[in-house]
Amino acid sequence: MDLFEHQGKELFARYGLPVPTGEVAFSPDDAVAAASRLGLPVVVKAQVHTGGRGKAGGVKLAADLDAVRSHAAGILGLDISGHIVHRLWIEQASDIAEEYYASFTLDRSARKHLGMLSAEGGVDIETVAARDPDAIARIHIDPVDGLSQPACRQWVQAARITGSAADAVADVLVTLYGAYVDADADLVEVNPLIVTSGGDVVLLDSKVTLDANSAFRHDDYAQYDATQTRDEREQAAHAKRLQYVGLDGSVGVIANGAGLAMSTVDVVNQVGGSPANFLDIGGGANAEVMAGALEVINNDPAVRAILINIFGGITRGEEIANGIIEATRRVDIDSPIVIRLDGTNAAEGRELLEPHLGGALMMEPTMLDAARRAVELAGAAGGQVQP
Amino acid sequence: MSIFVDENTRVVYQGLTGSQGRYYGLLNRDYGTQVVAGTNPRKAGTDVDGVPIFATVADAAAATGATVSCVFIPAPGVPGAVLEAAEAGMELVVVITEGVPAHDEAFLFNKLQRDHPDVRLLGPNCPGIISPGKCNIGITAGHIAEAGGPVGIVSRSGTLTYQALYELKQQQIGVTTCMGIGGDPVPGTTFVDCLAAFEADPETRAVMMIGEIGGSAEEEAADFIAEHMTKPVVAYVAGVTAPPGKKMGHAGAIVSGGKGTAAAKMEALTSAGARVGQNPTEAGELMVEIVASL
Q1: Which residues of B fall within a CB distance of 8 Å from A216?
Q2: What is the second-level CATH architecture of the domain B141-293?
Q3: Are A307 and A212 contained in the same domain?
Q4: pLDDT score of A381 more than 60
Q5: Has this prediction a pTM greater than 0.80?
C-alpha cells in the first residue's frame, strides 16, 4: 500500500520527525489559499504514487501567489508515468545546505531489516549505486534488537556524513527506524534528508509503502487504502476482496490459488495470447466468489475470452462445477468461457458441466489446451494475438 | 523414509476449536495423522470430536507427547502462538495462517534462531507438509498424493503443489514428503533447508521445486543445488509475465526494483544443473523422464 508524499510526512510527524509544514490542495484556488496561510516562498508538489516527479515538471518553487496559481494549474492533470495528478502538496520552501539519502526496508534474503544511507542525496539512488557503490552505507538490523544509538552513529560515519549535524542525523534515523517498525512499513525512503543552513535536519521527501497485512493493528490504514491508485477493474475487484491485478490483454483469467493464477497468466502468454488480468479466487471456488470474479472480468471491455483454470484439492470437482454453473446463471457473460477443471473428483465435476457446454461455455482437458482455446477465441473475437 | 514428519509424529493443533482448525484437523486425523491434542485457554478440558483440548501447548505436550504443532490461529495471534509452541519444546511448528505481517515474520525468524535454534518453523501462509501414507499436517488433500518415493516436493505455492502431486500420482510416481514453504516474504523454512533434507534422505532420489517471483530464495536454492545436490532437481517458477511492483496474490510474490524476476530465477536454476519446465505440465513430464531413468 503506497502513501502519497504528504501522507508519509504526516505519518513521520506523528513520530516527532521534522518535516516541513504544508497543506494538501486539490485546485489552484486551494493552492493559493494554502500558500497564503503557510507564507512564501512555497514548493508546489504533485502527489502521485510514482517517482520522477521533478523531472516530469511535477515539483515547482513559487515565490509569489501568481506563481503558486500557475504552477498548481500546470501540475494538476499532468501525466507522470501514467499517473494523473489530482492532488498537490503545498509546503514551506526549505533552505538546503546538505542533501542525504536514507531508507529502511526488509532484506528478504538476510531476513533482517536493511538501512541504506548516503551523503549523496537528492538524486536517484540507483544512479549513485551505479556510479559509486561505496557512497551507500548499508546496515543490517536484527528485528529483535532494533537500531541502537551507537550502531546508528557508526552507520552515519560510514556514509561519510560528517560535521556538526552528524549526531542530529543519527538521532533522526533512530526515530525513523522506530517509525518504520511501528507503522509496519515495507519501505520508508527519504530522499533528500536535508540539513538546512541553520543546521536543522529535515525530512524533505517521503516514500512510504505499508504492509496491508498489518491493517488489523493500524486504524489509519483505511484512509490510505481509500487513496490507492487502482483502475476501475482493480477497484471493483478490491471491493469484492478478490486478489486481482489488471493487465492489458484480451484473455480474462480466473484461477484458484496465487501460484496457479500466475502460472495461468504465463501459459496464456506462452501460447501466443495476452492475459487481461491475474485473478486468484482462493481454494474454495464457490458460486458466490466465482460469480464476483466473472462480473469483474466481464466488465473489462478488453476481454474477448475467459479462461477458468481450477484445480480441486479438498474442494471437490462437483462443488466447483456447481459453483461455475451457478455463477454463469447469475452473471450475464459477454465472452466465451473455456474451463479447465482438474484434481479431486474432476471427472464427476466435468460430468455436471457437460450438459451446459456448447455455445459460449466450453471445456478442455488440460491447462495448455484450455489456454490455446481461449487465446484462439480472443483472437477470433478481434483481440490482439501476438505471433 | 520421509523428512520432518512420519507415522510416529504426534501433532497438537493450536486453534483446533476454530472452524478452519476443526475442519482440517479432523481431515488430517482421518488421513491417519496422529492428531493428539488441541489448545484453547478458554476451552481446556473439553474436546473436539474426541481430541482433548488443553490450555497451553506445554500442557498438551506433557499429556500427549506431541512434538509437532500446527497453527490455525488468526494472523494477530501467530507470533505468540509460535513462541508458545517453541517454548513448549515443539520440534516443528507448521503455520497455515495467511496474512501475517512481514515485520512479525522477520521478528519471529530471528527470535527463533536466537532462543530456539532447534525449532523448525514451516510457513506462515503455507499448505503444510505431507509424507504420503504416513502423516498429513495442514490443508493438502491427502488422497491426491501417491505414497512411497522416489520424489520429494518443495513449493512456495499451494495449488501448484497439489497439481504436481496429482500429475505424479497419474503416473503412479510416489512422493516421500511434500512441503509447502509458503508465499510470504520471510518463510521459516526455505528451499535450501528442504533441499538439504531431501539430499540426506535415502528414499528421496529426485526433487521437484516450485518457485515463484519475488525475493531470492530460488537463486539461493540454485547455489545449493550447484554445490551440494547429487540428486536430480526439476524446477518450475511461476510469474514469468508478472508486471513489476505488483503483489501477485502472495505477499512475497513481487518483482521490485528489477529483482526477483522469474527469468533470473530460471536462469540461475538452469545454470545450477536443474531441469526447468516452462509450465507445470512440462515440469511434470521432466520428472517422469527422470524417475524412469533412476
Answers
A1: 75-76
A2: 3-Layer(aba) Sandwich (3.40)
A3: no
A4: no
A5: yes
